[in-house]
UniProtKB/TrEMBL annotation:
Domain of life per record: Bacteria
A Pfam family matched in the record: DUF1918
Ranges of compositional bias, category Basic and acidic residues: 56-67
Protein name, UniProt field: DUF1918 domain-containing protein
Species of provenance: Streptomyces andamanensis
């Protein structure tokens, strides 16, 4: 798993009815994009996470310039 600052970390719900938890990667603490990551949740709190198999990275796309 590789991430960069600005990517989203999505932790999928493990139980029926449990929503996915989405956070933003604010710091990559491992080498070359590997975990652990410091993430910020929608409510503003931060945590250090080493994501497991129930997580995925949504890569931040650079905005395209309009000409």
């Amino acid at each position: 798993m590789r991430a960069a600052k600005g990517d989203q970390l999505v932790q999928h719900g493990r139980v029926v009815g449990q929503h996915d938890q989405v956070s933003e990667v604010v710091e990559v603490m491992g080498t070359e994009g590997s975990p652990p990551y410091r993430v910020r949740f929608e409510d503003g709190h931060e945590a250090v996470m080493s994501p497991g198999p129930d997580c995925q990275i949504r890569h931040h796309e650079e905005p395209r310039h309009q000409h």
